Amino acid sequence: MNEFNERIDLLRRQIDEIDLQLLYLINSRSKLVLKIQGIKRKQGMSVYAPERKRDIQQA
Question: For position 21, what pLDDT does the model report?
Fold first, then answer.
């Protein structure tokens, strides 16, 4: 394998590692969302919070 291919392989491995980290973070976030959803439902609250969505989009 030449130097060019080795550099590409290294970069791809780094991308793969980042992808794994992203999946972990997304899964962690989803678990928290489900917890919030459960709490809100028990309290009879609306799950959807348009103001929160707006605040996040403006950040």
Answer: 98
How far, in Å, CA of 29 to CA of 31, rounded? 5
| SS3 of residue 36 by DSSP | helix
38-52 burial: b if 16+ Cβ within 10 Å, else e: eeeeeeeeeeeeeee
Separation of alpha carbons 45 and 59, rounded Å: 25
Are 16 and 22 in contact, with CB atoms under 8 Å apart?
no
Q: How confident is the model at residue 4 (pLDDT cuts 50, 70, 90)?
A: very high
pTM here is 0.76
Give the total number of structural domains in the chain: 1
Give the residue numbers spanning the domain of 35.
Answer: 3-58
